[in-house]
């Protein structure tokens, strides 16, 4: 469906998981938006149909940026563009986000990749394992605010990293450079993408994020935004939080919870985020199982640590995919074997995280019985 209706960062530059330790020459992230836009359009022109993919189980930032990029390609490069995603959209706010804004996106199960001659990845990068671009196909366009990985440099166009708290901010830069006015729906999507990824401009936010947020504010619809931020919630949402609190353990300044089987992978990140609000916490780790995969989400308040680098160092030997940046990161690991083996894997991972947190010697206390300080 047509869309017509837009690194290495200061968050850390480790070399784990293919991240570059030194910026290569001619880094697109350091060029003015107009120069980046022109290079983007140079790569896109001459193609007929573009498929823009988000990361699997996409969040609002990924979806908004992908829709905006498809919109930009249609208007400025003259090709037809479609947005696709793998996994599921399961969190209530994210379902409302797509429904209320009527975002033209499709699950990859509905897409014939042979119909497209241009492929883009948004809010993810090649070879990281958390998107649905087939291995036989190469990405032409890569746009992501996470730290640059070596494989991304093989793409004809790779705008990765830089001082951005959200990929949606990068697309706002493109739209403004192209002098394009987004529709109300696209503007609201980008606004919420920035708002959600930076936690209301309170997490890893840069001046460019603030400027983009303010540029979008008069262009987005506040009523639509309210419908997204305050959706009706299914009973299983509250049941999952009951499990999260019941199983949560506090280790000094860290809190860890096993959600067991979850109905949506993105709920793991939501729980990790929520538990970070517990008084005195510097670390929050949540994990849960979904369709024979273990999803982990990490939140960090200690500025001396980089969550993305840490989760890659711990999880890289277990297969799957992992990534993130300064204060937040996630991983998806394959699960096999019997229940006892899966429990052993969880214990092993938790032990490694607690060691990295510096709280391995702390006595665990159930969250339900933890005393206020």
From TrEMBL:
InterPro entries: DDH_dom (IPR001667), DHH_sf (IPR038763), DHHA1_dom (IPR003156), Oligoribo/pAp-PDE_c-di-AMP_PDE (IPR051319). Residues 254-341 form the DHHA1 domain. Residues 50-194 form the DDH domain. Gene3D superfamilies: 3.10.310.40, inorganic pyrophosphatase (n-terminal core). Residues 1-13 have a biased composition (Polar residues). GO terms for molecular function: nucleic acid binding. Signal peptide: none annotated. Residues 1-27 are annotated as: Disordered. This is Kef-type K+ transport systems (NAD-binding component fused to domain related to exopolyphosphatase). It comes from Pseudomyxococcus hansupus.
